[in-house]
Batch of 4 targets.
Target 1
Amino acid sequence: MSCSPFDLRDYYFKELAENERRLTEVHVKTCAGCREELDRLRGVEAGLLLLPDEEIPQRIGFISDPVFEPSALRRAWAAFWGSAARLGFASAAMLSAALIVFSVTHPAPLAKTPAPAPAVSTAALEANFSARMHQAVAAAVAASEARQAQETQKLLAAADRRHTVETQAMMERVAEYLEVEKKHLNTLILASNDAATREDAR
Amino acid sequence: MILRAVEDADLIRKARRGDVEAYNLLISRWERRVYNYLQRIVNNREDALDLSQDVFLKAYQNLRKLEDPARFAPWLYRIAHNEAYSLFRKRRPEGEAEELQPETMEGSPTVGGNAVFPVELTLAVSVALLKLTADQRETVILKIYQGFKFEEIAEIVSAPVSTVKSRLYTALELLKAELAPVQAPRGAGAAPPYGGGTPL
C-alpha cells in the first residue's frame, strides 16, 4: 500500500492536478517505498511497450466518385438536419407558422358590447326617473300605511275584547261582592232584630 | 508535439462538405493507430483491417454528428470500440469475448526478414495481455499504447472514470506478475505516446 498523499499510479500516469502532482513529487523524493512502486510501474509499462505498433497491411482510402457523391442539394439537406441549432430554428419557425395559420383560420370571437342607448335628453330621463320614483315611493307608503292601519285595527279590536272581558269580570266580582255584603247586612239586621226582641222581652 | 500545416479540425470541416481527399488525409493520420488498437483487441490482423475500414466508413457517414471536432479522437475510438464489440457479439453470442488465442508469429513485425524484437518477449507480452479480461485489455491498450486520458477512455468505453482506473490498475497488477520473468530493460520499445491522442 502506497503512503503517497495521492494515488501514486495517478501520479505516474500524469492524471493528477498540478498541486496534487507537486505534493506527490515532494513525497516521492523522500520515500524509497514509493520510488520502488514507481519503478515497478515503469517496468510493467516498458514490458508492454515491447509489443510494437504494426504497420497497417493495407492503406485505407475512399475514392471521390461523383456518381456516389451526394448532390449539393442533398448535402445541404443533410447538413441542415445534422445541425441541432438549425433544427431548433426550423422547429421554432414551424411553430410560428402554425400559430399564424391557426390565428387566421380561427379568429377570436368578438367581444359582445352592449347596444348603444338611444339618444334621449337628460331632462326627460330625469323626469321619467322622478315619476317612477314617486310612483314607487307612493305605492310603498300606501302599502305601509295599509299595513299599519290593519295592525292598528287588530290591536284596537284585541284591546276592546280584553277591556270587555275585564269589565265583565269586574262587574261579576262587584255583583258577588254586593251579594255578599247584602247577605252580611241581612244577617246583621236579623241579629239586631233578635237583640231588640230580647231587650224588649227583658 | 507534432505541428501540422492543416489541423484535423480543418480536415473534418472539409470532409463534412464532401471533400473526400481531406478525409483521406485524415484517415492517413489515424489508420495506423486505429488498426493497432483493434488488432490488439480482437487479436486478428484480418479482422482488425476489416474493422478499421468499417470504422472509417462509419466515421465518414456520421461526421456531421461530431459536435466538437477537437473531440475527434475519442469519438473515432468510440466507433472502433463499438465495431470490435459488435464483432465479439457476432462471434460469441453468449458475450464471452476473452478467450482469445495468440496469433502465430508468422506475422510478427520484421525488418528485412528479421524480427525487430525477440520473439519470446513479444509473445510473452501478447500472452500476458490475452490473460486479461476484454475490458481490462482494452483499457491497457487505450492507456499504455494509445495514450488517452482517463476521461477520454471513459468516453470511449462508456464507463465511469473510476471503473476505468480500477480496470487499468487491476490489469497492471496482473501484468506485473505475468511479465516479471521476462522484464525487459528499461527504455525498450517506443516512448509512451502520452499527450492527448496525437496520432503517430
Target 2
Amino acid sequence: MTLGDVWTVSTTGWVVIANALIVSAVLVAGGRFLARRRLSSGVPEGRQVFGEFAVDFFIKKARGMTAGHDRSRIVGTVTPFLGTFFFFILLCNLFVLVPIPIVNRPPTSFFSVTLALALSAVVGNLLLAARFKGPGGALKHLFWPNPMQWVSEFTDVLSMSLRLFGNIGGEYMTLVLVAAVVPVGIPLILHVLGLIPSFVQALVFTLLTASFLASAIHQEEHKKKAKRRWFGRKQAEPAAQS
Amino acid sequence: MNPIYMAMVAIVPIAAGAVTAAFAMRRISVTALDGMTRQPEIAPQLFTAMLIGMALVEALAIYTLVVTLVIAGKIIV
C-alpha cells in the first residue's frame, strides 16, 4: 500500500456521507437522551448536570461577545452555532477509535468535509453579522476597519480547513501506513496519541470561529451620559453597562 | 519525472516546516511555563492560551505537510 493509495481516497465517496450521517445521528440521539427527563430550573440532577456542563462553556463564550440590550437573542443563536461545531468535529475525530473497518475513517480526514465545515463557519459568521447588525453592518464589517478583511475571510477558510484536515487526515494516514507494516501494538500507541489532537483541534476550530464572530458582531457598550441639574451639583456618571 | 528527484524534492517542505514549528513552539511553551511558575492560580488560562498558540503554529507546519503529501502521492515507482 503506497501513500498514493491512501491519499486518493482508497474508499469511494459514499463513505464520507455515510460516516458523517452516523455522527449526526449519534449527536441527535445523545441530545434527546440528555433532555428526556423533566428539566428542572432549580437544582439539576442526573443527566441534566452533564448536559448543563456541556452547554455552559458555549453560553459563557456567547455572553462574553455580547453587550447591551439584545443579549438574550444573540446568546440564543450563537450558543448552538458554536456548540454544534465543537461536538460535531469532536465526535468525527473520535471515530478513528471504532474498530469496524469502513466506519473507521473519520469524516474529518476528508478534505471535502473540513472545507465544508470551514465554509459554513465563515459564511455563518457573515450571516449572523447580517442578522444582528443588518446587511449594511455585515458589508461594513467586510470593508471598514480593514479594507482587505474580505481577503482575510478567504484565508480563514483555507487555514481552518487545512489545519483540521492535516491533523486528523495525517493521523489516519499514519495509522493506515503503520498498520500495513506492524498490525499489532504500535497502532494502539498511535490511537492513544491521536486523542489529544482530536480534542485540541475541535476546541481550536470553535474558539477561532468564536473570535471571528465576536469581531463580526461587535457590540458596543452603551454609556449613559451624566444628567445635569440646573440648580444643583452634577450627578456622578454611572458606571458603563457591562 | 524521475521518482528519485521527486522524492528528494518532497523532503524539503516538511523538514523546513517541522524545524521552524519546533523552534516557535519551544518559545511558546517556555513562556507559558514561566508564567505558570510565577502565578500558579491562573495556570488553566495560561494552558488554554498556550494550546491555542500551539495549534496555530502547528497549522503552518501542516500546510507544508499537505504540500509534501501531494508531491509524494504523485510518485509512481
Target 3
Amino acid sequence: MNLNTVAEVKRPTSADQITQWRDGYAWLAGGTWLFSEPQISTDTLIDLQQLNWPALKSSSAGLDIAATCTVAELYRFAGPSDWRALPLVQECCNSFLASFKIWNAATVGGNICMSLPAGPMISLTVALEATYTLWPRTAPAREVPSIDFVTGNHTNILQKGELLRSIHLPASVLSKRPAFRHASLTHLGRSAALLIGTQNAAGGDLVITITAATPRPVQLRFKHAPSAIELRRTIDERIPADGYFDDVHGSAAYKRHLTRYFAEQIRAELAQPGARK
Amino acid sequence: MIHADVADARPAGSADARMNYNVNGKLFSAEPTPGQCLRTFLRDRGVFGVKKGCDAGDCGACTVWLDGMPIHSCLMPAFRAAGSEVTTIEGLAKDGALHPMQQAFLNAQAFQCGFCAAGMIMTSAALTQEQRADLPHALKGNLCRCTGYRAIGDAFAGVTEIEDDVAGRACGASLPNPFAAGIVTGRARYTMDVAVEGLLHLKVLRSPHAHARIRAIGRERALAVPGVVEVFTWEDVPRRLYSTALHEDHLVSPDDTYVLDNVVRFAGQRIAAVVAETEAAAEQACRLLDVTYEILPAVFDPVAAMAPDAPILHDKGGEEKGNIFVDIHGEVGSVADGFKAADAVHEMTYSTSRVQHVHLETHGSIAGAATTDGCISAPVPRHPSSCS
C-alpha cells in the first residue's frame, strides 16, 4: 500500500552515508512488511538495495548471506554436496506463510529483523549456528551468535539505526546431518512449531532448535545424544508450560505437544545411522 | 522527494527526480511519490488491470511481472520498478493473440466476477513445471472468492467448459461469461477502474471506544492540513435515522443509525469524515482531529446485554425492552406436532458466528456532483457476476 506519511527516500550507496539516525527513519530492504501496513511513525525510507551487497558468497569457511539476499535467491542456492544440512534451506523457505512471489522481494535479513516467532529464516540460521554481523550507526561492527539475536515476539537486540549486515553459516555446521519437523494448524499456514536437529558426522551429539512454538528460539545442546526421557525432561526444564507462544496459530498446549513430539522424532531419526529419509 | 546517489534510473543529465519506466513496452518518465507502491503508480496511469484487493500482499490481485518475475505490486516501492520491464495483464497478449494461460482461463471459465483473474493469470503464466505440480503451494499467494479453485485447476489441465453460442441452440448450452474476454485481458472495468478529473478523497476517523459520548470535536488542526477541503462531524449531518441493514422489512431492521452520531456504540464507529485532495492529506487530517470522549459503560456479550442492568445502547423509542428491539419467534407448520410424531428427538442449542464472504473487490463508491434534479450519482461495487 502507499505509505502516505513517507516524505523522502534516501538511496545511499554506502551505509556510512547515513550518519545521523533519528526517529522516523526506517531501513528499506524488500519492503514486503513495511508496505503491508500503514507506518505512521515513519517519514523517511532508507533504501538498502543500492548498497549492492553480493547476495551469497560461499567459501571453505561456510556461506555468507547478505541481509539483502532475497528468499528466492537463497532458495536457489546450490552448495557443495558435503554440506549435508543444505536441504534445510528449502525446507525453511517452504515453511513461509508467504508465497513464492513474496520470496522474490522479501529478504533473509528482513525476516530475521522482524523477529516473529515463526520467522523461518530465524529457524534456519539459528539451527545452523550462524553468526550475525551487525553495523551500529556510531560504533564498530559487532558479531553476535544468532541464538542471542531475537529476544521475544517482534523484539531483538538491534539498537536504533543498527543494521543487520550479513549472516555467516559455518561450514562445520553446514556439514552436519539435519532433521526437520514442521506443522501448522492450517494447510500451508503459518508455523505452529518448527524444529530442527543437527548432528556431527561422527555422530553422538545432538543440537535441537525449537522455533515458532516459543516467542524466541530455544536451543538444546547435548554432547551425547539423550534418551527419550532425558530429552523430554530437558525440554520441560528449559520451557515451562507458560513459556510457549499462545496465539491464533496455535495454543500454548498444542505447541508444547508438537515440540515434545517433534523433538522425540528428531532424536529417533538422528539416532539411526546413515542418510536421512 | 527521492534522492538517488546512483542515478542509473534517471534520465541522463536530468536535474529532476523523474525516472524511466517501461510498462508493457511503453516507455515514459515519471516521479512516483516517496512512499508510493507500484500498484497505485500503475493505476494512476490508467493501467486498471492491476487490481487493489487486500493492499497488504496477501490476495495477489495486483500481481505483475518485474523483468519477468511475478511480484505483488502493492508491496513493491514504485521507485524500484524504474529501469525494469513491468508487465501487467494488459501486456500479456502478444500481437493480438491471447497468452496460452489467458486462453486456458477463458476456456475453463476460471473466474466468476473476474476480479482475481488478472493476478491469478499473471501468477499462473509465470509458474515452472515443478510449481504446476503443486498448485495449492504455487497459488497460495492468490485468493479467489467466488469460483473456487476447481475451475482454475481445470485451466491448468486444459479443460474447456464452454460451448459456442449458436442461434437457436443457446438454451441449455454452457455459454461463457459475456465479459470473459475483458476479464482475461484486464480490460473489464470494475467500479474503481475509472479516472475522474478533480477527484477528492474521503477518509473516516473511527472510535477507539466501545461506548462513549462525544463532548467536542476540534477540527482546527485538521483543517490546517494543506489539501483538506472539508471536515464533517455529527453537527453537520441531517439528524435523520436510517437502517444500515438495507432490508425492506423495518420490523427487523430498525432505523437506528445517523450518518454521523455523537454517541459511539462500538469500537470502529465512524466519528468524522475528512474530504481532501489526496488520501494522504485526508488521513493526516483524521489523525489531527481532537475528539473529547465521555467514556460510557459497555457490554460485549449478547446475553449480558439483555440483563436488566445492562448499559443501554439505543434509546430512540420503539425498543421492546432495554437492548432488545423486538423478540421474534417463527415456525413453519407445527414444530410441537412434529416432535410428537417423531421417532427420535435430538435437542441441542447451536450457535454460529456471522460469516463474511470477504469478496476481493474493495468496498467503495464514487459520488458525482449534484445534477439539476438534485440527484447524486454513486456507483458502488456490483454483484460479482456482472462486472462491466
Target 4
Amino acid sequence: MCLAIPARVVEVSGVDQARIDIVGVQKEISTALLDNVAVGDYLIVHVGHAIGRIDPDEAEKTLAYLAEMSDEDARALAAASM
Amino acid sequence: MKYIDEFRDGKLARALARTIVREVQPDKSYRLMEFCGGHTHAISRYGLEDLLPKQVRMIHGPGCPVCVLPTGRTDSAIELALRPGVTLCTYADTLRVPASDNLSLFKAKAQGADVRMVYSCSDALRIAQDEPEREVVFFAIGFETTTPPTAVVIKQAAALGLKNFSVFCNHVLTPAAMVHLMELSAAGGADSVRIDGFVGPSHVSTIIGSSPYEGFAARYRKPVVIAGFEPLDVMQSILMLVRQINDGRAEVENQFIRAVTREGNQKAQRLMGEVFEMREAFDWRGLGEVPSSALKIREDFAAFDAERRFAIPYRQVPDPKACECAAILRGQKHPSDCKVFGNACTPDRPIGACMVSSEGACAAFFTYGRFRSTTRT
C-alpha cells in the first residue's frame, strides 16, 4: 500500500497534473500535493498522486556514503586475510 | 530504473552485511521492528534476514493498513456495497479480505454488488462524475502516505459540487500506533514484546517528516531510523540502529534523506488538516482500541462523509479462532507460529488479513521465505 515509485516528469500537463515516465511507461498523475513541479523532476508517486520529490543531491550523498562504506569493508576484508 | 537500481546493488548489500556483522556485539541481542509493511515485504523479498547476524532479529510491525483494519469495518464496506444504487470503489488490497458470513468485497461483487477496483481515489471521483445516477463511495484506507490524496479528492468533489460522492474513511496514524506498541510493552504481560529500535516508514515520513518521531524516541528511549524502501536503504538503516544501540543512543536519524526532511510535506499536512480531524479512538486488529490513532472527515465536508450519509453501524467482530494475525501484528508471533499458516491459510485461500495484503507479514513470508529457518534470538 505504501508502495511508491520514483517517476520522471516528462510534461506538466495542466493545473496540478503531470505526465510521468517510469521505464518507458507514461501516466498522468496529480501533483496537487506539491508546488513548482518541473520537467525532469523525479517524483514519488503513490496511488496516482505525487507525494514528494527525490532530491538528487541527497541521493548522491547516500550513494557516496555507501561507496565509502564499501571501501572500508574492502579494507577490513583485506586486513582480515593477512 | 533511476533511484531504484542503485539502491539494490548486491555487492553493496553484502558489504553492508559484513559491516553489520563486524559491529554487532556478540552477546547483545538487537530486536528491531520494521513498522511498515512495505519494509516487511522488502526484507522478505531480498532475503535480508539471511544477510544479518543472528544477534539481529527483525520483528514485523503493524504498518499494513489492510491488516490492521478490523473485520467490522470491512463488513460495513460490504454492507454499503450491497445496497442498490451504491458503487463502492476500493484499492485492490481490500477485495479479498475475509469478512463476516464468509463474505469479502470480491464475493459481494459476485453476488451483484457494484464493487470497482481503483488504482487512485481520483479514479473514484471520475466515476462519480461520469455516472451521476450512482452513489459512489470510496473505501479509504491507509496511513499518512495515502491520506493526503483522499483529502485532495474530497476538496475536488466539494469544488465540483458533486452530489453523489462520499468517502468511507478508515485512515490511521503511524506515531500513535508506535506509541501504543510501546505502552503495551511497558505494561508487560501477555501482549508485550521487547523492541530495541525501529526502522521507520519511508513514505509516511515523506509526508509527516522526521520530527513526529522525536518525542517518541525521547520518551521511550528507543532509536528510530527512517529508512528508504530499497534493500540498501533497509540495510544501512539497520547498521545505523545497531550503532545507536551500541552507543546507548535513542535518536531519530534519517537514512532516507533523498525523500524525507524534518518538516515533511507541509502542503500535504495542511490539506489533511483541512479535511480530516482526529477520532477519539479507533479499533485496530491486533492493538485493540487505540486513542487518537485515526481520522474522520470534518463537519465542513460532511456531505462527503459516507458514515454520516449512510448511517453505518459498526460491530466489533473477532478474528477466526485459528487466526494469529493479531499477535503477528504486535510483533509477538511470527507467521510460522500460526497453526493455519501455509496449510489452511494461503494467499489463494486466506483466512486472515495478514495473508491477503501484499504487505502483510504472512503474505511476505509465504511468498519469499517459508522454507527458511526462523531460529534466531
